[in-house]
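Checklist before submission:
- one chain only
- standard amino acids only
- sequence pasted in full

Submission:
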Amino acid sequence: MASSTLICETQPWKALKAHVDDIKKTHLRDLMGDSERCKSMMLEFDGLFLDYSRQCGNQDTMAKLLELAEAAHLKEKIGKMYSGEHINSTEDRSVLHVALRAPRDAVISSDGINVVPEVRKVLDKINEFSEKIRSGSWIGATGKALKDVVAVGIGGSFLGPLFVHTALQTDSEAVACGKGRQLRFLANVDPVDVAKSIAGLNPETTLVVVVSKTFTTAETMLNARTLREWISAALGPQAVAKHMVAVSTNLAFVEQFGIDPNNAFAFWDWVGGRYSVCSAVGVLPLSLQYGFPLVEKFLKGASSIDKHFNSAPFEKNIPVLLGLLSVWNVSFLGYPARAILPYCQALEKFAPHIQQVSMESNGKGVSIDGVPLPFEAGEIDFGEPGTNGQHSFYQLIHQGRVIPCDFIGVVKSQQPVYLKGEVVSNHDELMSNFFAQPDALAYGKTAEQLLAEKVPQHLVPHKTFSGNRPSLSLLLPSLNAYNVGQLLAIYEHRVAVEGFLWGINSFDQWGVELGKSLASQVRKQLNKARTDGEPVEGFNYSTTTLLTKYLEGNSDVPSEPVTLLPKI
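Returned file contents:
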């Protein structure tokens, strides 16, 4: 495929478009009756079990999707990513988050240099530093051990680490490793988030980790300055060096801020923010909470999927199959959204993380060569743990819009509960729904079935379920650090596959820049209005009105306020 050729101009794309009519003549309740088809749509790898038989398609669909992968040069593009070519062309960067969890003896190069030794050097530094904090050999300014950590960062510096932390908080091994310690995250520049993140904490026992590659991210640095003031007000300015560390590449700015550059942990331009949880961005705060040996298991789980993605044939490759099916649902069947439904409360922060990984990566309107796309790319991702979601938005999924669903289940609960006299355990009750919901979506319920059940005629239309609603099921053996790493890497690579197929750049994010640029203009206006009393000007009528209302309602804010910190 020439660089100027869009994937929609290829023969496999056109063949899939024509194939849609054949599939729309079928119904999942009929497709599910074909046991050979179902068997061909199941896959097992490293303890994981994937069943995609409830997707609206058959063996012919999968063959055509694999032909699309060939037309998109998917294997070649994956190879380029692993070999360190600058596939992020708009920023002229490699994309090497796989190097962050590669074995120590691996060779993964960027610009002709093996980056793995440098990665391992940072990981070794994190191991050593986190052990000092956890053992109490590194103490705070007043001689007390630092048992509480606040990680300050936003976007990819927050959502990924929060997902992993939340997933591990109830794992028995992680609970033992984190006993007596707290890890909190501060992301939003909203002062309420500041108040919540430090509520009940003592500056004497708190370590703040500031995560910002450039040390210039507006929200992160304002929050960092706020926590610096919180520490300084209680312990004196000299305490900052003992109570604050950084994850950054800008050592000059780190030092200017008051943090010892020796306590800065590096990451690299070839790590995108939303793919950075396996770098110091996530590994440092997680190691401070749980210890590096446990976090290393998480990295090994991700590495297992990295090897699988790069070596397994596409018809047996979990991330490739998931990516192909996403493109089938979005670009051919016309289903732009995807519900991520983990039947595991510990995965409550998984969907928010994948929202960023997916939507920031693939929310693009032009090809990698800058050609406007004549088709929609990207998925609208949302989700909630089951069974909570069933009592929230499943009504729409069952009887409203068709939304493909990812059901994620766990064989062994992190916290099993058994009650004498109950029919099933709590986990079995949860998993009963995990197994039932995909079939309910696939089969639905017909008017004939309802009438046979003596449902009143006037209620039949309301109780009819059309079915034929696609889903897939991913079953994990347990949810320990290793499994969490596997799950993360599956979805990271799935997103990359979608982008490779659509022919877009999944590794830049220019769409986030315009709003930030306009916010800087508003910031200047607010400063002038507060300090000099200048009227709002230079904005459209709507924005001018809103700003004026805001300033009038905040007229008691002094032009030169003294420092005020949260009081929770």
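Reviewer check: Residues 407 and 473 are 5 Å apart (CA to CA).
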